[in-house]
Each structure stands twice: as C-alpha cells, then as structure tokens.
Amino acid sequence: MNVAVCDYGAGNVRSVVVALERLGARTRVSSDPAAVRAADVAVLPGVGSAASAMAALRERGLDGALRERVLAGRFTLGICLGLQLALEESDEDGGVDGLGLLPGRAVLLRGGRVPRIGWAEVAPGGDAFYFAHSYAAETPAAVAHSEGVVAAAEAGSFLGVQFHPEKSGAAGARFLERCLSRA
Amino acid sequence: MPLPRLIPCLDVAGGRVVKGVRFEGLADVGDPVELGAAYSDAGADELVFLDVKATLDRRRLLLDLVSRIADRLAIPFTVGGGLREVGDAEALLRAGADKVSLNTAALERPALVGELARRLGSQAVVVAIDTAGGRVFTRAGTEPTGREVVAWAREAEERGAGEILLTSIDADGTREGYDLEVTRAVAEAVSIPLIASGGAGTARHVADALEVAQAALLASIVHENPARLAALRTELRALGVPLRDAA
C-alpha cells in the first residue's frame, strides 16, 4: 500500500504522514502530479486559506492529478480544508473555485464560537473527532454530521472529512485504517 | 459547541519540562515527549508546550523537540515562546505543531496576529494574554503594558486570533482556583474560543472554569503525576462535565 500526501507548501502535513505510517502504509509527501495520480491512496490535507491553497494546487498541477485519479476510481481522502477545496466553490477569501470533486460549497460557520475548535461527536458512529475550522461544507453528498455541521461527504472515490483524523487519537487511527482498507 | 477541553500545559526550557509558581522559581519536572505521551494516554484533549526561555540559538532545539512530539502524539498541540515572525510560525507547523501561541510579540507588534492568521489560518493562531488586576503584562508576566485585558482580547480577535489563552498571573500555580471574574469578562467580550489558565487545584475549580471557557489549561495540578489527569477526568464526569470518550 503506497500513499501520497499532497504537498502544496502550507500547514502541518507531518502529522498526517506519521499517522498513516503508524498503520503500516508506505507514505510519501509529494508535489509531483504523476506520483499523486498513481498512488494507491492520495490524501489532500488542509491547513490555511482556500485561495492560497487552490493557487498552490494549480501551480503544481495537482488539481488535474486529483481529478484524474478520482475519475479513475482511485480512493482519495480530503481532510479539513481538503474537503472544502473538493467542493465546487468556497465563500472564503471573497469566493474561490474549488476542484468540483463534490457538489456544493463551503460557507462560513454561523452560531457558536468561530473557529469551531475541539472534539465533537460524529454521527453515524458516535466517536468524537477533533475539528478546527471556520468554514463548513454545504453539500448533498454529506454522509456524516457533527452538531449540524457536515463532518464527511463522499462522491465516487473521493471522501472528504471536516475533522482531523490524524489528530483524533484512537478514533482517528481507526478511521484512517478503514480508509486504507478501502483502497 | 464542541466538548469542553482539558489541556495540560508543559512549560519547557532547554528541552526539559519546568514549572514555576507565579512565573518564578523554575524546577525540572520531566521530559516533554514522555510527559506529553503520558498525558495523551491519560485522555488529554490537546497539549500546549510553552518555551519559557526561548532564544534565537535555542530555536533549532525547539523545532527538534516539536518534531519528536509530533512523531509520538496523535492529538493536537500548540507551541509558544519566542515567536517573532511568520517564518518562525511556519517552521513550527512544518515540524508538526498544529497551532502557535504568541504573547509578547503580539503586544509589541499587533499586526503580526493578522499576518499569521492570513498565512496559517485563524485556527492555528492562539494569542496568549497574561493578566493581573485587569491589566495585561508582558515578558513572562513581569512587565506591565498599560493595556486593559478585555480591550486587548477584543483587538486580538479582530486581528485574526483563533483562540485566546488567558492566564491570571495572581492565580497561576496557587491551586486556589481560576480567576473566574476576568475569565467571564473576556469570554463575554469575544466570540472565539477561550482557554482559561492559572490556578487549577481541584476538579471543582476546573468544572467552574469550563462553565465559562471552552477549555481549561492544566499545569501544576497534573504535572507531578500524569495519572492525575485520568483521575481528574473521572471526577469531572461525576460533576457533570461532558468530556470526550478517549478510548
């Protein structure tokens, strides 16, 4: 099993790599479109802002690589901003076109304290995962929720999660293990 | 709202964990990676590592420490101390930290908060505020700034901070309870999450703080015995505090 973690120059990708390696996956951080296209599993992590992340993905040709691998049915996981980037568009940074791997858009969270930071239960399942976000997906492809917020959305071979499995302790490790077993 | 968070804080200096009372008299209490792992196993929701003697020549040491922590832990952690520029923060995140905390640097140059938020996202930017008598102090709680604590917390939020870490200098290390008055004043003034800090001595103290703030920082109450955190979680649950199931 080889996993490519997309590197687009921002944020903490080390934790994602470490979490996958703990599960025995041969994991490489890569900004090479060919490597991302061909990997058994690709992970689009996400920390930072939507506009700069999308620009960095395009600059490296990773946007096309991700679309192609999803079309080819290869499992691809988006985490946090990685879920939001997969939508058609995001309201962040005055409006940003996304990858269009999932229908819908990312909208600013309303109500409660924003950023929404901390552990919250996800249904179905009931495990608590760690969230840290100001925007959330509005999508007909939602497959899990947390306190009224979309926690996971799925279309074809793309699965996006709003929480950080790599930071969610034992529950996060179990989730990532299930992801690897799908590939 | 997400579940209330318990956040053990490890003050580090020269690669070791230290603890002082009222910001003075530092004593060595252990290895950061081992203590961090012990807290994680005991159900910590997050960890904070504050480099209390950060200097330029120690930056490499801190980055190495952050990498070792990230390799070992699967819960979020914040790193603070000596942060001056966006580049410092980026290096900490690349090394595996999830958030950076800034204190003196934000007071000296408030625009830094906005620069960090734009580059890293607000969720990665914690502004730490040390307060006594309603005023803000800087340089590890030693220097008064003349700023009023509520006004500074509001300004930090407006500039892009994702969380406020509020430490009462008077209460810190005393184990006599959090300063609920200043905690409440700041909680009501901002709409970002608030982490209460300083003074935890009993489960009741922590439960009271979590009525007001979204998270409680824990230092001397758990340092001498990491297993104390597991016991504290049980006591808090008995008091009706809804903590996550860490299993």
Write the layout of secondary structure elements.
The complex is a heterodimer of chains A (183) and B (247).
Chain A lengths: L1 E5 L7 H9 L3 E5 L2 H6 L2 E4 L5 H10 L2 H10 L4 E4 L1 H6 L2 E2 L5 E2 L7 E4 L7 E6 L6 E6 L1 E4 L3 E5 L2 E7 L2 E4 L7 H14 L1
Parallel strand pairs in A: 1-2, 1-3, 3-4, 4-13, 5-7
Antiparallel strand pairs in A: 5-6, 7-10, 8-9, 11-12, 12-13
Chain B lengths: L4 E9 L2 E6 L2 E7 L1 H10 L5 E5 L7 H14 L4 E4 L5 H9 L4 E4 L1 H5 L2 H10 L4 E8 L2 E4 L4 E6 H11 L3 E6 L11 H10 L4 E4 L5 H10 L2 E4 L1 H4 L3 H12 L9
Parallel strand pairs in B: 1-4, 1-12, 4-5, 5-6, 6-7, 7-10, 10-11, 11-12
Antiparallel strand pairs in B: 1-2, 2-3, 7-8, 8-9
Helix pairs in contact in B: 1-2, 6-7, 8-10
Textual characterization of the structure:
The complex is a heterodimer of chains A (183) and B (247). Chain A is α/β, with parallel strands linked by helices and 183 residues long. Chain A has a single domain, classed as Class I glutamine amidotransferase (GATase) domain (Rossmann fold, 3-Layer(aba) Sandwich). Helices cover 30% and strands 32% of the residues of chain A. Chain A has helices at residues 14-22, 33-38, 50-59, 62-71, 81-86, 169-182, and strands at 2-6, 26-30, 41-44, 76-79, 89-90, 96-97, 105-108, 116-121, 128-133, 135-138, 142-146, 149-155, 158-161. In chain A, the strands form three sheets. Chain A has a seven-stranded mixed sheet, with helices on both faces. In chain A, strands 6-5-7-10 form a four-stranded mixed sheet. In chain A, strand 1, helix 1 and strand 2 (26-30) form a beta-alpha-beta unit. The longest helix of chain A has 14 residues, at 169-182. Chain B has ten helices and twelve strands. Chain B has a single domain, classed as TIM Barrel, CATH 3.20.20. In chain B, helix 7 links the parallel strand 10 (163-168) and strand 11. The chains are: A alpha/beta (183), B alpha/beta (247). The interface between A and B is large, with 38 and 37 residues.
